[in-house]
Amino acid sequence: MSLSEKLQGYSGEARAMLEGVGAEIGDEVEIRAGEKTYRGILMARYELADPGYIVIKLPNGYNVGIRVSEVKEIRKLASAKKPRFIPPPRPPAKPGLPKVMVMSTGGTIASRIDYRTGGVRAAITAEDLLSIVPELSDLADLDAKILFSLFSEDMTPHHWNEMAKEVDSLIRKGFDGVVITHGTDTMGYSAAALSFALQKPPIPIIFVGAQRSSDRPSSDAATNLIAAVRVAGHAPFAEVCVAMHAWHSDTIIAVHRGTRVRKLHTSSRDAFKSVNADPIAYVADGEIKVNARGLNPRGSNEYSFKPGFSPDAALVKFYPGMSADLLEILVERGC
After folding, report:
1. How far apart are CA 36 and CA 238, in angstroms?
2. Is the pTM of this model over 0.85?
3. Which positions ≥6 away from 159 have C-beta within 8 Å?
4. Greatest Cα pair distance in the chain
5. Count of C-beta atoms within a 10 Å radius of residue 81
6. Domain ranges of the chain
7. CA angle, residues 222, 138, 175, in degrees to nearest 5
8. What is the pLDDT of residue 115?
9. How far, in Å, CA of 105 to CA of 180, rounded?
10. Do domains 3-78 and 99-305 have the same CATH topology?
11. CA 108 to CA 16: how far, in whole Å?
């Protein structure tokens, strides 16, 4: 665990106090502030929250924020029990199935709830995802790797370039499809980026995520992943796509073209929609139902690899009354 993750969200004097006693997120601590003493579990905080508080979960289940300026003493009572997930054995590959790579970049689909702190941790790998969804062994000869372990809001043009290079390498190694697990907040951006970097690819490249982590009863992780692997291995088309729930039920997964898809809701299972277009396909009842014409075919011989995203590009949205000064500022800063 990195230093920032050990005290996620804490900075300044609060962080210095906690580091001074060797405390980490999830540890049991005792804090004396004013005339009161508080005992509980040290909680993570949002990085943009007021830095002048330390948050702990009390034995009654409630969280309390303690003003740093009132803290007289902090004691670490016990270290946190680290989350431990032991996946079942991975099912053996069946002969004759397409070879698909599941590549993890992070996000909710690769996370589990830490019920001690109430937070979400990136505690499972792409290999774990395969082992806990045994249905995948009937769809493809699967391989898995971790490319990144990031929250999707931390994705940058550099990461798009790295993803594109890795997929290009897998195409040249003869894989029949690629599934990229990704955090949902910026998955639409990554799908669009790779659509331009991997033009007319010979195999499907399917982004997939989850609105709810895999250990929650309402999780959409397994159904989305199963559909993504099915499309990557068996679809007659070869496009960069996003595969997510078409509506609240598990019965239909929509396959959106990477340059058309956007996330339009924070938590709903059907948060992803194609803008000014219909999904190019649906997965329902174990079948891929193509919903568009003129798609790039699997096995395309017109593949063109064009990476090279610049960090100096800016996305500017026009609005009524917008000042031209904003554009001039961007130009002055090298955009």
Report:
1. 63
2. no
3. 105, 148, 150, 190
4. 75
5. 10
6. 3-78, 99-305
7. 90
8. 54
9. 7
10. no
11. 30
Task: Tell me 52's DSSP state.
Answer: T
Query: Within 10 Å of residue 321's Cβ, how many Cβ atoms?
Result: 4
d(CA 253, CA 264): 16
Q: Which residues are catalytic?
A: 108, 184-185, 263
Fold of the domain built from segment(s) 3-78: SH3 type barrels. (2.30.30)
Look at residue 1 and tell me whether its pLDDT is greater than 50: no
Give the tokens for residue 247. Answer: 């509506």
Q: Please give the Cα distance from 282 to 215 (Å, whole number).
A: 25
Are 101 and 144 in contact, with CB atoms under 8 Å apart?
yes
pLDDT (tens digit per residue) in 25-78 = 889 999 999 999 999 999 988 666 788 999 999 998 889 999 999 999 999 999
Structure tokens at 267: 């938590």
CATH topology for 99-305? Rossmann fold (3.40.50)
Look up residue 297 and give its two tokens.
């075919």
pLDDT band at 82; cut points 50, 70, 90: low
Q: Which pLDDT tens digit goes with each residue over 198-237?
A: 999 999 999 999 887 666 666 888 899 999 999 999 999 9
Count CB-CB contacts under 10 A for residue 162: 15
